[in-house]
Specification:
The structure holds 2 protein chains of 2 kinds.
Chain A: H1 14-25, E1 30-34, E2 37-40, E3 50-57, E4 68-69, E5 74-80, H2 86-96, E6 102-107, H3 110-125, E7 130-135, H4 154-166, H5 171-183, E8 185-193, E9 211-214, E10 225-228, H6 232-247, E11 254-261, H7 267-283, E12 287-294, E13 303-312, H8 314-321, E14 324-326, E15 330-331
Parallel strand pairs in A: 3-5, 3-6, 6-7, 11-12
Antiparallel strand pairs in A: 1-2, 2-5, 4-14, 8-9, 8-13, 9-10, 11-13, 14-15
Helix pairs in contact in A: 2-3, 4-5, 4-8, 6-7
Chain B: E1 3-4, H1 5-33, H2 38-52, H3 59-74, H4 78-93, E2 98-99, H5 105-119, H6 129-140, H7 145-158, H8 182-198
Antiparallel strand pairs in B: 1-2
Chain lengths: 332, 199
């Protein structure tokens, strides 16, 4: 098969060349504290919990796009689809902590857990307390919430934790709110075509023409069902049925909604999906407090989308509405 | 023949060359049940390790330098697992410029213990441990290098019949059946290179 077409110079340098571009484009928001450790320009504040997020590259604007005042203080940047090693996470934490502890937040993947746990051990040796909240919003990835992957719901979950930290809440409270936000966030995706790594430029899975895969992960991990591509409303219904069944909230509840592109699916298709999502929410008598539509957590050039619902309460609503100013995401 | 610092440098050069040669095959295998990056991680890790080991005066320093270089080049799952493995090998080799050839299988046992400690995997979960564990058991029972390689190979082959319960492929359930675990396959290649250089 012919190599996939990408606008790159050297597949092995893709992540570092992207970082050069990100820093050049957003000098008012982002700075580089150490190799692969991106920090917010506004700097650490004494007494503030440092929120450090991170993971593999290839999901932009996740993770580095969510670094900024009111959201994450720093991001540790890995190779494409690979957890960063411990050092960038340690460097990011050291550069941003304000003496009130560090909260690491990232998606629940075996590699990320090992590397960030090693980072926590290294920080402990420096006398800095680091805790961890894993995101586990992908309901297609396991029946057991603790074993699920973290996917596009990250943006809501990180947002709530970042607001809590920005409000100068102590580490216990920031951690509690982060866990609470994660427990109430539900995502499911659908893939229409594969993605390829810049180093190999080969499709990382095969999806026959005319087929879709429901529940596929953001690294191309196989999902729960493969079948013929259906019209948008039917796809939205299948995903919404799964999410609403699991969320099981009473009529009148308030939600935040994200319809996310996995990379190459355009806004037109996302809004067609959103129209059906809004209709389903209205039928279920759920009110939409916040709606995001666009690429928030991508998988290189994969075609497809995911739908996320976060079940809000007063506390999470306040956290979502709290202003933030990041290079690739703003509220207020 | 003793295992010297020169042999150790040659070993890591051989490991790096092998992973470069197998990169695309390992990525393709990983694409069947994972995210298709395993070959890239192993190549980057071993290339970094190979660059870090020359000009050090003890085997311990070499294995520790390889561990650190591998980890910082890779991250991912294989970074912490192989970094821990190589640090255990460093401890076993000790601060000396050479170790007797007869002792070298103990390096395999030490590496397997490091991987089990870091990854918390048990045999049968369709991970690299399914190659490392039988190789380590063979090494501990006094097996020859060809026997250690055969044990690793049998372990890696058996992963095709296993359903993953740990790591990224665990989310596939029964869909992981029929495909060998890429981590076990690359583990086998590593053990083979140890055998070729040290056996």
């Amino acid at each position: 098969m012919a190599p996939t077409q990408k606008l790159i110079n050297d597949g092995n340098r893709a992540v570092d060349e992207m970082l050069v571009g990100v820093l050049a484009a957003h000098p008012n928001h982002l700075t580089l504290a150490a190799p692969r450790a991106i920090t917010a320009k506004h700097g650490p504040r004494p007494g503030k919990v440092a929120l450090v997020i991170g993971g593999g590259s290839g999901h932009e604007p996740t993770f580095l796009g969510f670094v900024g005042k009111g959201l994450a203080d720093a991001a540790a940047v890995g190779n494409v689809f690979a957890s960063p090693p411990p050092q960038p996470a340690v460097d990011a934490a050291m550069a941003t902590h304000g003496g009130a502890g560090v909260l690491f937040m990232y998606g629940n993947y075996a590699g990320d857990v090992m590397n960030f746990d090693m980072a926590s051990e290294l920080l402990e040796m420096e006398g800095i307390e680091a805790r961890t909240v894993l995101t586990t919003d992908d309901i297609a990835s396991s029946p057991d919430r603790s074993k699920r992957r973290g996917v596009a719901g990250n943006v809501f979950i990180f947002k709530c934790a970042g607001a809590a930290a920005d409000l100068m809440l102590p580490l216990d409270q920031v951690e509690r709110i982060a866990r609470h936000a994660n427990a109430r966030t539900y995502t499911m995706g659908v893939a229409l075509s594969a993605c390829s790594l810049p180093q190999t430029r080969r499709l990382n899975f095969e999806l026959p023409e005319g087929e879709m895969e429901i529940g596929m992960g953001i690294h191309g991990e196989p999902g729960i069902r493969r079948g013929p591509l259906k019209p948008a409303n039917e796809v939205a219904d299948e995903i919404m049925d799964a999410i609403l069944t699991e969320m099981a909230v009473p009529a009148g509840a308030k939600v935040a909604v994200l319809v996310n592109s996995l990379g190459s699916t355009p806004l037109m298709e996302l809004y067609i999906l959103y129209a059906r999502v809004a209709e389903r929410l209205s039928l279920a008598k759920l009110s939409v407090h916040t709606a995001l539509v666009g690429p928030y957590c991508t998988s290189m050039e994969m075609a497809g989308a995911s739908i996320t619902l976060m079940h809000l309460d007063d506390e999470l609503t306040e956290m979502l509405d709290h202003p933030c100013d990041c290079a690739m995401f703003r509220v207020g | 023949m003793d295992f010297t610092t020169e042999t150790c440098t040659a070993l890591f050069q051989a490991l790096a060359a092998r992973m470069t040669a197998e990169r695309d095959a390992l990525c393709a295998l990983d694409g069947l049940i994972g995210d298709a990056d395993h070959g890239i991680a192993m190549e980057q890790g071993m290339q970094a390790a190979a660059a870090a080991v020359p000009d050090l005066s003890t085997l311990q320093d070499q294995f520790n330098a390889a561990a650190k270089a591998f980890l910082n080049a890779v991250g991912a799952s294989s970074g912490p697992l192989y970094a821990t493995a190589l640090m255990r090998a460093a401890k076993t080799a000790g601060p000396r410029a050479a170790m007797p050839a007869a002792e070298t299988p103990s390096l395999i046992a030490a590496m397997a213990e490091g991987i089990a400690h870091r990854g918390k995997a048990e045999p049968g979960q369709k991970t690299m441990i399914d190659a490392w564990h039988p190789a380590a058991e063979a090494a501990k029972s006094g097996a020859t290098w060809p026997e250690i390689v055969a044990a690793a190979q049998a372990g890696a082959d058996a992963t095709a019949q296993m359903q993953a319960t740990l790591g990224r492929a665990a989310r596939l359930g029964a869909r992981s059946l029929g495909h060998k675990d890429p981590g076990a396959v690359s583990a086998c290649m590593i053990i083979e290179e140890f055998a070729k250089t040290l056996g």
